[in-house]
Design a protein that fits this description.
By secondary structure, the protein is α+β, with helices and mostly antiparallel strands. The chain is built from nine helices and six strands; from the N terminus they run E-H-E-E-H-E-H-H-H-E-H-E-H-H-H. The chain has a single domain, classed as Transposase IS200-like (Alpha-Beta Plaits).
Length: 319
């Protein structure tokens, strides 16, 4: 078993998770552009409806993607991310060319256990472009983001090209068929966080507006003090997709996001027990014996292709 298995809190009906996808070698394969933005939003809208996953916030930088989603269970989470990952990878290769992997590794998925931690993630997403001095205001980012949608109610509209339909019509029809004939526009509907559910839409937008205003004020003070001028929108769109930073930022991801120590301790204990049960079930499946995987984790869809390492430690770096 090459990776530590993931699990969700067993007592939560719908769990909020923070997802991060990074490109291989931190290359700028997600460089902002109208075509990439529109088709990525269309893909996200399609897979969201397909698996009934709630999207709270999304931010796509040039070399990584952040997504805050609400999932009912681990299997739905896995299927949703499988389709999203493969779709974005195909789109990046179709637009920029090249060969090989698009993503450096599998997604980083971190459960978010309480409202305060969830609110901090929204602030983190809003601050993505400004903290790196790419823009002076959160809403000025030229890539995919949710600032205008959450603060002002702007639609997150993307397009979806049905290539299967395009190929079949091209074979059957005598006339010319274009992508526009097989394109439809979709709106990505955002799911409000639990601490804002039930409030009027004006109150929800006011909360996000205060968050945006705080970040904007802090950014202007810092950039003025350090005499930093953010690049123009044209410069951000003109980045070479195969370039990469000299020293990409690398830091270990936490196992869970929460502001309550007791919740973290309970989740770590649950994860430790889950890994033991999962590893035993996986080993039994490998040997052809009766097995049963825990309910709050992803169940493999086929037999493993290689022998697990019996000498792996029970839990790898949980702390």
């Amino acid at each position: 078993m090459p990776f530590l298995p993931r699990c969700l809190p067993p007592d939560a009906e719908d769990c909020w998770v923070d997802v991060t996808l990074r490109t291989v070698d931190a290359r700028y394969l997600f460089v902002p552009g109208s075509e990439f933005n529109d088709r990525t939003l269309g893909l996200l809208a399609i897979v969201t409806r397909r698996y009934r996953v709630g999207v709270g916030c999304v931010h796509i930088a040039s070399n990584h993607l952040h997504l805050l989603i609400r999932v009912p269970d681990a299997n739905t989470q896995g299927a949703f991310l499988r389709d999203l990952d493969s779709g974005i990878a195909r789109l990046a290769r179709r637009l920029h060319g090249g060969e090989g992997h698009v993503f450096a590794r599998r997604p980083t998925i971190i459960p978010v256990l309480d409202d305060d931690a969830l609110a901090q993630r929204y602030r983190y997403y809003f601050d993505q472009a400004t903290k790196d001095n790419l823009t002076a205001r959160p809403r000025d980012w030229v890539g995919v983001h949710c600032v205008n949608a959450l603060c002002r109610g702007d639609a997150l509209r993307g397009k979806r090209i049905d290539r299967t339909l395009l190929r079949s019509r091209a074979r059957a029809a005598s006339g010319s068929i274009t992508e526009a004939d097989c394109t439809r526009w979709l709106d990505l509907e955002l799911t409000p966080p639990p601490f804002l559910e039930g409030l009027p839409i004006e109150a929800q937008r006011a909360w996000f507006g205060r968050l945006e205003a705080e970040i904007e004020e802090e950014t202007q003070q810092r950039q003025g003090r350090e005499r930093i001028t953010p690049p123009t929108a044209a410069a951000l769109r003109a980045v070479d997709p195969f370039a990469h930073p000299r020293a990409p930022k690398r830091s270990p991801a936490p196992k869970v996001l929460t502001t309550v120590k007791a919740l973290r301790d309970v989740f770590i204990a649950t994860l430790t027990e889950f890994v033991d049960v999962f590893r035993d079930a996986w080993w039994r499946m490998y040997r052809g014996m009766a097995f049963s995987f825990p309910d709050n984790g992803f169940v493999p869809g086929r037999e493993p292709m290689r022998r697990p390492d019996e000498h792996m430690t029970t839990v790898c770096a949980l702390e």
